[in-house]
Write a structure and sequence with these properties.
homodimer; about 250 residues; alpha+beta; Arc Repressor Mutant, subunit A; 2 domains; five-stranded antiparallel sheet; globular; DNA-binding
Chain lengths: ~250, ~250
DNA sequence: CGGGACTTTGAGCAAATTCAACCATTGTGG
DNA sequence: CCACAATGGTTGAATTTGCTCAAAGTCCCG
C-alpha cells in the first residue's frame, strides 16, 4: 500500500487559494523547515503537496518503496512494526511538527497509521533530497532531528528493557505531557488520542496491564481520568518518582 | 569522567612514524570517513588523534560534555544507560568502523566502555563540525549512519517489547554474525567479547535467563559453544526461525 | 436508544526473575 | 608449582510480575 491509498494529495502551488501557506503554519517552529529563510521556504513549498488522511488509514507501509517523505501538520500518527505472527511494537507516536519517512535501502522501515484525522505536507523523496543539497541548513536540521529520534529510541530501549509496568506508564504520561507542552498545550488535561491497545504495544505490555496500571494510578490519586482520552496529571512529582528518572 | 581518564591520545600528525595512516586503515570502508577523497582525508587526519583504551575503561560518560567524537578502529565497545537504582540497559555494541558520540545539548546521552582493548580515532567536536560544513558528503554520510542507528534501535525496540527470551538470543546471535561478516570475518566461529551479563543487559533479560537460553540452544544443537567467548551457529536456519524474523 | 468498539476487572497461569548454590577459568602470591 | 581467591558462568527451586482467558462494564456515535 502506498500513500495514495490514504487520501488525496494536491500540489501546494495549485491550492494557493485554499491551502495553508507556510507563513501561517503554527507548528513551523517545531518542524524541519524551521531553519529555512522565506525565500528558501518558497522553494520548499513549490515541491510540497497538502495531504489529509482519515483516522485509521495507513499512511505508509513497512517495506513499501519510500517515494515520499512527510511532515505532520495536524493530528496524531502511530508508527509500528509487526512480527510475522502478528505481534506488534509501536515505535513512536507523531504529532504536529514531527517528520515521517525514515527509510533504509529506499524502503520504509515501519508502517504509519493515522490515529486521528491527520494533515501532512508531502514531498517526493528525490525532490526533497535535491533541496537538501541546495540548503545545507536543512540537511543539518534533518541530522539533528534524526539524532533526536535516536536518543528517544534509546530512552525507549531503557523503558522496554528495564522498567516495570508502572514505571513505563508513568514515563509515557510524562513524555506525552512534555511533548504537549512543546506544542503550546497546557499540560493540565493531557490528550491521549491512542487506544489502550496502542499504548500497550508502545510500552511492551498487554492492554490489561495498561488498564490495571491506569486504575492503580487513579486510585492512588496520581492521575485523574476524564473519559478514556483525557488524563490530568494530578501529582506530577509522584509520577516523576514512579518513572525512575531515565 | 572524560576520555582523558581512559588512556592517552596523541595527535595523528605527531605520530606519523608510528601511527596507522588512513590509507592503511582496513576498516575505512565501513567508517564515516569512507566518503572522503584522499585530499579530504588528509584534512580529517590533521584533526585526528589516535587513542588506545584498555579493556573495562570508560571512554565517555553519560551527561559529560560531548567534547570529542570517535571512530572505533579496533576492539569492542558497549554503550549503556543506567537507571537511578543501578538497573542498566545496554543500548548497543560497537565494533571497528562504528561511530561513537551521539549527543544532545552538547552532552553524551550514554556511557561507553571498552569491552576489549580498544583503539579509536578521536576528533574535537568543534573541529569535526567545521569539517562537516566544508565537506557536505561527510555530513550526508553522518546522516546516513544516524538513520541506520535509528533503524537498528527500532528493531531493538521490537525485540525488547515483543520477543521471548529465546527469540531475543537468536536475533542477537544472528545480528552479531551479520556484523562480523560485514567486517570480513567468516561467520563460522562467532566471537562474543562481551560477558553474559552484558548480553542480558542488552536483551532486557537476566544473566540466568541468558545462560539457560544458551544452554537450551546448545542442547538442541542449534549452536555449539567453544568456551565462553566463541559460538558456532551450527543451524542458522533454525536460528532464523527462532528469531521470528523481524 | 442501541450496538459495536474499547476498557476494566477477575482468576488462573506461565515466562522470566530472584535467590542460592555450585562449577570453571584465570591470575596471583606463598 | 600449587593453593586459592576472584570473576564469570551454569543450574535448581521458589517466587513474582505480567500474561491469558473470560466476563462485565463504558463510552461514543449514529
Amino acid at each position: 500500500m502506498g500513500p495514495r491509498d490514504a487520501g488525496g494529495a494536491r500540489r501546494r502551488s495549485d491550492a494557493a487559494a485554499g491551502g495553508t501557506p507556510c507563513a501561517a503554519c503554527d507548528i513551523r517552529g517545531l518542524s524541519f523547515c524551521a531553519v529555512l529563510s522565506p525565500a528558501e521556504l518558497e522553494q520548499l513549498r513549490a515541491i510540497t503537496s497538502d495531504m489529509r488522511v482519515e483516522a485509521h488509514r495507513t499512511i505508509v507501509s513497512e517495506t513499501d518503496p519510500a517515494d515520499h517523505l512527510f511532515n505532520v501538520t495536524g493530528g496524531a500518527v502511530k508508527l509500528y512494526k509487526l512480527l510475522m505472527d502478528g505481534r506488534r511494537q509501536i515505535t513512536g507516536f507523531l504529532f504536529p511538527g514531527d517528520f515521517l519517512g525514515v527509510a533504509l535501502n529506499d524502503r520504509y522501515v515501519y508502517s504509519a497509521e493515522a490515529i486521528t484525522p491527520v494533515s501532512l505536507c508531502r514531498y517526493e523523496r528525490t525532490q526533497l533530497e535535491g533541496l537538501l543539497d541546495a540548503f545545507p541548513a536543512l540537511e543539518k536540521r534533518l541530522l539533528g532531528i534524526t539524532a533526536n529520534d535516536l536518543v528517544a529510541a534509546q530512552d525507549q530501549m531503557v523503558l522496554l528493557g528495564r522498567k516495570t509496568a508502572q514505571e513505563r506508564v508513568a514515563s509515557f504520561l510524562l513524555n506525552l505531557s512534555r511533548r504537549a507542552e512543546d506544542r503550546g498545550h497546557g499540560p493540565d488535561p493531557l490528550h491521549l488520542p491512542m487506544t489502550r491497545a496502542d499504548i500497550a504495544d508502545y510500552l511492551g505490555l498487554t492492554v490489561e496491564t495498561v488498564s490495571r496500571t491506569f486504575s492503580r494510578l487513579r486510585k492512588s490519586g496520581v492521575i485523574v481520568l476524564d473519559g478514556n482520552e483525557w488524563v490530568r496529571l494530578a501529582d506530577r512529582a509522584a509520577l516523576e518518582e514512579l518513572s525512575e528518572g531515565e
